[in-house]
Amino acid sequence: MGQFVVSARKYRPQRFDEVVGQEHVSKTLKNALQNDKLAHAFLFCGPRGVGKTTCARILAKVLNCENRTEDFEACDECSSCTSFNGNASFNINELDAASNNSVEHIRGLIEQVRFQPQQGQYKIFIIDEVHMLSQQAFNAFLKTLEEPPPYAIFILATTEKHKIIPTILSRCQIFDFKRIQIPRMVEHLQHICKEEGIEADKDALHIIGQKADGALRDALSIFDRMTSVAGKKIDYESVIENLNVLDYDYYFKVVDGMLTEDTAKVLLIFDEIFKKGFDPDIFINGLAEHLRNLLVCKNAKTLGLLETSDSLRKRYQEQANLAPNSFILTALNIAADCDINYKMARHKRLHVEMAVIKMTYIGRAIELSKNPAPVTTTEKKTLESNVVATPKTAPIPVQPIAATPTEVAPIKAVKNTPIEESQVITPNANEEINASAPETIEPSIVSEPEPTTAPISQNVGTNRKSTKYDMPSLSMIDDDEDEEEMEASDIKLDEALLTNTWTAYVEQIDSPSVKAAFTKASVKVKDEVTIEVEVGSQMAKGMIQQEKNLIPFIRKRIPIANLAMEITIDTSKASQLIKPKKVFSAKEKYEMMREKNPMVHELRLRLDLKPDSQ
Predict the structure, then answer these.
(1) What is the C-alpha separation between 295 and 317, in angstroms, rounded?
(2) Residue 433 backbone phi and psi in degrees, to 5
(3) What whole-number distance in Å separates Cα of residue 91 and Cα of residue 93?
(4) Cα gap 182→396, rounded to integer Å
(5) Which pairs count as long-range contacts for 572-581, CB under 8 Å and 24+ apart, including other chains?
(6) Do 285 and 318 share a domain, yes or no?
(7) Do 307 and 230 lie in a common domain?
């Protein structure tokens, strides 16, 4: 039984031209060799399986090659290249930083740097997964990395560039490796199939490339797995069966059922997928990717974003022509919400089924939103104080109202005043109400102008949220006032009336603290429609503002239009309320306690205690 070599090692590139998908790195390194402007430290960073270590080995091989080609590649014939190919070169040292990450390992590497190369021009140190070095190891490596001997070259490789300290990054020439695109992977796999004599469907190789997620090494590992299963012929069915990938046909059938609103078909297909062992989240994510591909096919400019084979691309274009953009975008939104809430759902299958049912009826929902059903509801307007009951016996003549708008003078609030005959509007002014009509007639309503009397304001912020402590407006005051209420035109704001009103309100306050705040407040008339209240602190101002019954009380006793109240804080009054504190000595405190309680003196004598002298 011969020793099997995996494709990732057997077909590992040996020249810069053989590196797949990293032409920008190969070209830059070749130009540096051509112009003799080679840096002493390199940092190759990028995702896994994209060729970082491979490029580091090729560069090390070219640096010590004795007979470089015209395009600056290794000759593979000299002693240096031969020893490198046999893994017996003493001038190239590889260090795995994942297992050699301590200060001692870096010190050992620094000791090796001191010795010149035995053969060739350079001594190359390749450190893989350099981000695994400890902080102390990085610090020990800084000086050597910054000023190495002229024959020493360091090539660092990492998949997590953000974990490397900035002082290391600043000493290296950084090369960012890209994820390898699926078409390039397919081309490379086809080349290997040709070398190995394997027949493979292009759709099957596309599935392998998609499963590799941008890493060529993963694609080669999957390819070896498929050759073990299928032998010399790799077809699409064997690949999707062994890689646990849902067939494209399922998604095409599901979307066809959604477009025709065939709920039974869609649910049966999902049940078939579920019975094959696929988790619901795999289905919903695959469906979202399928919808995304349909959206990409809508525009010829974005058609290049579709990473599929030519035959599959035609199927996508055909279905994209049948699906409207509104359906695709709405279905994508539903699929995204389903994926986000999938982990929190208790019944995961039902959660996905509900999302699929919503997608099925997207077209009907869009039609209903565009053409809403007419609403046939009858609104009946009633106004208790304005309903007119007409007698049965005689008709009521109604005068027509002029069509031209007229100015309406401000009116005062009235209570339960019956509407006059001239206020009722009928469709035609010359018609009379038939005596045989029902007893209750529903007249049209005349909209009354807003009253000109404004509620009392306190000159506080009007943009704040309403709370239960807000002072009510006039609309909140009961209309059931006493008949003995004075008319607004007969009242004038003066000091005596204001003081009596304020005192009367203070007497009915129950809280001692609020009552004290109102008592200490100074109330005076600022002008004909303004009341000025001076308080000594912000707390007292807040207490007055929170009294919700204050405005109704003042409005009832002083019915003046546009009456306003200003609350200000008098700092001098606040300073008067604060009494200066007197400092007592210990002896004075004892004498005060003795005056209040003579037993303190007797207790001191029994315990033989002496007060402090201070």
Answers:
(1) 10
(2) -75, 125
(3) 6
(4) 90
(5) 573/520, 573/522, 573/534, 573/535, 573/536, 574/536, 574/537, 576/536, 577/520, 577/536, 577/537
(6) yes
(7) no
Give pLDDT, residue 305: 84
Report yes or no: 55 and 19 within 8 Å, Cβ to Cβ.
yes
Query: Does residue 318 sit in the same domain as residue 237?
Result: no
The parts of the chain modelled with pLDDT lower than 50 are: 1, 375-489, 575, 577-578, 614
Say whether both 130 and 61 belong to one domain: yes
- DSSP run (H or E) holding 545: helix 538-545
Alpha carbons within 13 angstroms on the beta-carbon side of residue 494 total: 5
Position of tokens 């988790």?
Answer: 279
Calpha distance 98→145 (Å, rounded): 19
Q: Do residue 90 and residue 148 come from a single domain?
A: yes
The count of structural domains within the chain is 5
Domain of 158, CATH number, reads 3.40.50.300
Name the amino acid, one letter, at 433.
I
- Direct distance between the N- and C-terminal alpha carbons of the chain, in angstroms, rounded to an integer: 105
Q: What pLDDT does 41 receive?
A: 92
- Residues 162, 81 within the same domain: yes
Is the CA virtual torsion 447, 451, 456, 462 positive or negative? positive
Of 291, 255, 290, which Cα lies nearest the Cα of 270? 255
Q: In the structure encoding, which two tokens stand for residue 23, read together?
A: 């032409």
Q: What CATH number is given to the structural domain containing 357?
A: 1.20.272.10
517 CB neighbour count, 10 Å cutoff: 22
Beta-carbon neighbour count of residue 437 at 10 Å?
11
pLDDT score, position 90 = 83
528 in any annotated domain: yes
Evaluate whether residue 447 is within a structural domain: no
Indicate the residue among 349, 370, 391 that finishes a domain. Answer: 370
Q: What is the pLDDT of residue 543?
A: 85
Domain containing residue 300: 262-370
Question: Residue 388 domain-assigned?
Answer: no
The pTM of this model reads 0.55
Residues facing residue 44 across a β-bridge: 157, 175
Q: What's the rounded Cα separation, in Å, for the pair 344 and 342?
A: 6
| Locus of tokens 């389903």 | 338
Distance CA 515, CA 521 (A): 10
Q: List, for residues 9-37, the tens digit of each pLDDT value.
A: 888 888 888 888 888 999 999 899 888 88
Contacts of 454 (CB under 8 A, 6+ apart): 474, 561, 562
User: Can you give the CATH number for the domain in which 496 is found?
Assistant: 3.30.300.180
Name residue, tokens 């960073």. 45
Listed in sequence order, the residues at least 6 apart from 39 whose beta carbon sits closer than 8 Å to its beta carbon are 32, 172, 173
Query: What distance in Å separates the CA atoms of residue 148 and residue 113, rounded to the nearest whole number?
Result: 8
> What was the pLDDT predicted at 470?
44
Task: Please state the φ and ψ torsions of residue 418, each to the nearest 5 degrees.
Answer: -65, 145
Query: Residue 193's domain is classified under what CATH number?
Result: 1.10.8.60
CB 130 within 8 A of CB 157: yes
Q: Does residue 154 share a domain with residue 95?
A: yes
**E strands, 166-234, in order:** 173-176, 199-200, 233-234
In a domain, residue 253? The reply is: no
**Which residues does residue 256 pair with via DSSP β-bridges, in sequence order?**
none
Question: Which of 152, 176, 200 marks a domain boundary?
Answer: 176
Residues 135 and 228 occupy one common structural domain: no
Beta-carbon count within 10 A of 454 CB:
13
